[in-house]
């Protein structure tokens, strides 16, 4: 995804070419093969949220079978914000108000069903968001953001499922969510996260009051949490990408306003700066 267009590559990123788009601009995409993918198109007031461009409301679900050259609308839940598919017959959509819907294309036909209800009911104007990442044939990691903030706390709660039906509350912001028995997350603001596999995910960030991005590794489907290290001088994170529970990268912003890519190879115990770009250069 580029700022104003959809780009594709067929040589590992050495070269890029512009792809097609539906009538409304695509906000995010998820592909299960070089040709088959799904996207969120249109919608009002799109905002960048931890690696996703998330519309507030009015978006639609679209799909492609030719690698993004052409797109067609797909019936689904109203006001979708994020989408991912495990394969051509099973997928998920995160919505602003309801929560997470599951799509299944089985012998009896295609269907959508509400798989995970939001535990809160935030006001529409607070910017509630549902972020999702597929992690296997039936596995999904979810991060609900409540929107709004007060006293350096902003509500969020993460869930995980390995089978698509039973869910575990993994971590949350305890001062605002009030979910008994759910462990606290990395810090007081919603973190960036990266699903590694059905059992593991990494959460990093966000602490405006502490000015660090704390790393928490969730294992065993969220049953076990391990706090490792922290990225110093990083009160805000924008995205995280981990290829394993030890190796990953996080896009942050330091106190001077520079956009920084930090990397770890030991599960977040230690971090090294890979690239820093001044805000005037990043745009």
* Classification by helices and strands: mainly beta
Strand order of the largest sheet: 3-4-7-8
Contiguous runs where pLDDT drops below 50 for at least 5 residues: none
Domain module count: 2
Strand coverage percent: over 45%
Distance between the termini: 16 Å
Question: Strand-and-helix sequence, N→C?
Answer: EEEEEEEEEEEEEEEEHEEEEEEEEH
| Distinct helical segment count | 2
According to DSSP, the number of beta strands is: 24
Helix content: under 10%
What is the residue-averaged pLDDT? 91
Keywords:
283 residues; four-stranded antiparallel β-sheet
Describe the protein in words.
This protein has 283 residues and is mainly beta. The chain folds into two domains: 185 residues; 93 residues. It contains two helices and 24 strands. The strands form seven sheets. A four-stranded antiparallel beta sheet has the order 3-4-7-8, with no helix packed on it. It has a four-stranded antiparallel beta sheet with strand order 9-10-11-12, with no helix packed on it. A hairpin with a 7-residue loop joins strand 7 and strand 8. It is globular. The two termini are 16 Å apart.
């Amino acid at each position: 995804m580029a700022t104003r267009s959809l780009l594709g590559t067929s040589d590992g990123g050495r070269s890029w070419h512009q792809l097609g788009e539906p009538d409304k601009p695509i906000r995010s995409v998820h592909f299960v093969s070089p040709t088959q993918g799904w996207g969120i198109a249109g919608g009002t007031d799109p905002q960048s949220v931890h690696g996703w461009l998330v519309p507030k409301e009015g978006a639609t679900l679209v799909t492609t079978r030719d690698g993004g050259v052409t797109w067609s609308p797909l019936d689904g839940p109203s006001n979708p914000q994020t989408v991912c598919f495990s394969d051509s017959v099973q997928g998920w959509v995160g919505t602003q108000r309801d929560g997470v819907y599951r799509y299944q294309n089985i012998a009896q036909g295609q269907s959508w069903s509400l798989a995970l209800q939001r535990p809160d009911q935030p006001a529409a104007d607070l910017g509630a968001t549902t972020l999702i990442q597929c992690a296997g044939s039936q596995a999904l990691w979810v991060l609900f953001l409540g929107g709004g903030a007060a006293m350096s706390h902003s509500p969020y709660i993460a869930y995980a499922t390995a089978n698509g039906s039973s869910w575990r509350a993994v971590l949350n912001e305890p001062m605002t969510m009030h979910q008994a028995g759910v462990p606290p997350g990395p810090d007081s603001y919603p973190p960036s996260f990266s699903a590694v596999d059905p059992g593991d995910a990494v959460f990093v960030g966000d602490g405006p009051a502490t000015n660090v991005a704390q790393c928490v590794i969730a294992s065993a489907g969220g049953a076990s949490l391990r706090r490792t290290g922290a990225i110093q001088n990083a009160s805000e994170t924008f995205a995280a990408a981990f290829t394993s529970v030890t190796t990953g990268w996080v896009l942050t912003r330091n106190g001077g306003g520079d956009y920084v890519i930090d990397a770890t190879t030991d599960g977040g115990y230690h971090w090294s700066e890979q690239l820093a770009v001044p805000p005037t250069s990043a745009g």
